[in-house]
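RECORD TYPE: protein structure
NAME: Helix-turn-helix protein
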Amino acid sequence: MNPDEFEKFLNELVTRLKKEMGVKPRDKWVDGEEAMRYMRISSKTTLQKLRDTNAITFTQPLPKHILYDLDSIDEYLNKHSNK
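PREDICTED:
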């Protein structure tokens, strides 16, 4: 089995296992409640401060409807973790 065939086999195996185990792909954008749960914060004010300081990426497709980028939240958490 050459490297390309092996990679194809692995990708198919992972896809099949995810399907069988019911693993859903992670959404890129989440609402404020889910962002707060993900970061384990309970204050909307803290989330607002992170938004105001551009510490995390967000978008506002509609008035009063703000979505947060999970990759950005991961970066923020990793940057502020104790290693």
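COMMENT: The mean pLDDT is 90.
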